[in-house]
């Protein structure tokens, strides 16, 4: 994690989360100094030593609220690619929300996060049958992901809905996803899909960032209007013994 106000705010947030959930969560901060091309070794070794189940990485690009690019760090992108290839556990890349706020409400005025005072938080898990989809399901399953004490009050108010949509090819998949993204604040998708899968046919040619996968790349595009965060997950790779 780079030094500076941004990393300090992240550490503060996690420490606050630990205080609010002291019976269920513990936070340990680890600092290492290494050249960018070797940083993945520190992260993978730490994950191995701590028997880590899941690594969350930041996407290398950040956007202003109007959808234009704020920063883009090629070192972070290379780090993400190296960890996806060598991690001893499952990996997720988190694409922050507030990327594109060109959406409008029924009166035609621009919407923004500050104007949304709803207490609900909607999460979607997209399942297309890819090899990483089961990992996405596990992350969306409260019983498997977090401690029971922390999630007991959440389970009492959660409303789970299963929706099955019939699509025949990549363009139909894209159209359906575009039609539902505005309903969610967090979308979880798997990274890898069969290159011959008809559900993603025609989409691979437009994929800009391979680390996000076909669907993750589509949903992270500023061409899609929405104010949601995106978590792209890759299941732990099993290496031959």
TrEMBL record:
UniProt organism field: Hibiscus syriacus (Rose of Sharon)
Protein name (Swiss-Prot/TrEMBL): Cation/H+ exchanger 4
Signal peptide interval: none
Keywords linked to the UniProt accession: Ion transport, Potassium, Potassium transport, Transport
Residue span(s) of domain Cation/H(+) antiporter central: 10-96
GO cellular component: endomembrane system
Cited InterPro entries: CHX17_2nd, CPA2_transporter
Origin: domain of life: Eukaryota
A biological process from GO: regulation of pH
Keyword rRNA-binding belongs to the record: no
